[in-house]
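Appendix B.2, paired examples.
Example (i):
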Amino acid sequence: MKMTKATEDDIKRVNLFFLMLEEVIEEETYTPPNDDGDGVTEPVDDERLAQLVRQFWGRTGPGVGPSWRRVVRGADMLIRNCCDPDARTLEWRPDLRSFLESAEAAKEKP
């Protein structure tokens, strides 16, 4: 199966969307990011939440849109196909780890 790879911008937009959502849900506030790092925190009610979701989703500018699929499905595909299913952290599958170590060792031989 082929699918379009998520770009760094896709990942950034999805991350910003979920950071915004996390802050709104946990704190009922939103602090817009800015270049100098000291954004003004605002309270968020249901109407403002709807505006933020539309804004971050891309209805009023560039946003997450369908890029979330590339990010989530890409991560899922890599985890299912490349990661050790028995590990609780991101570790290479044992056969891939062995192959990579063998390839590295072969490169080091004169």
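Example (ii):
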Amino acid sequence: MVNNSEADVHTKGSCVEPSVKREDLQRGWIGLGTALDWIAQRGQPLSRHLYPAREDTANETFVAAMADLPSEIAESLVRGQFEDGPLTLVPIPSGIWRLTATSDANDADLPYRLIGTDEGDPWEGAILGMHVAGYRKVQIQSAFILDRWPEHTPAIEPVPTRATSRADVRRLVESMIAKTPQELAPLSQDEMENLIRTMKPAAPRDMVRELYRAHYPNLKRGPKGQRDPERKAQLEKFRGELIAAKLRN
């Protein structure tokens, strides 16, 4: 989700002028905002009418490209400051990309949001967490950006659609049941659905319910009423642990 204001976009007549030129990518590391702008425009003017969709596609393509890389390669290419850590740049866990949304249209309750620029520095950016700490001052190796999205090849490849298989959802349900802390076990059907949606937003609700009932065929729904606030806090802690484990995979 890129946080660009109209003031950040250089317009000339009916075109949006590029904010990033080829020479801006000569440094070894560049800010996230710089990388996304380059992917969208490749240093060339773009029709103001086409700019918003092009920008969205660039963001989605970048995240998809990072998600498809082997872990050790992805973590060598992107670094940032962990929000709950020291002010040093560290490799960003590769598992974060499959959990990161780039716009309101595709967030699907994903736990992280891509922020292409910030108010302090338009060429910095962040990956902010909804339930856990994220990363600021995100930087990418410029050689990767130039190699993957060359200057004179303006086309942006389509983002691949990843199907969610029943086997994937079953493994996730079984893993979640095995990892559920004793004080939370068993999770209710609604709790399971909510946690599964965090980890795999495309998982069909009916499939999750069916797999849940296969494990708990005789479990009765609890009494209606206000949820125990302590249990809610425990569930959020468990959600954070699941996200952290996903980042390490």
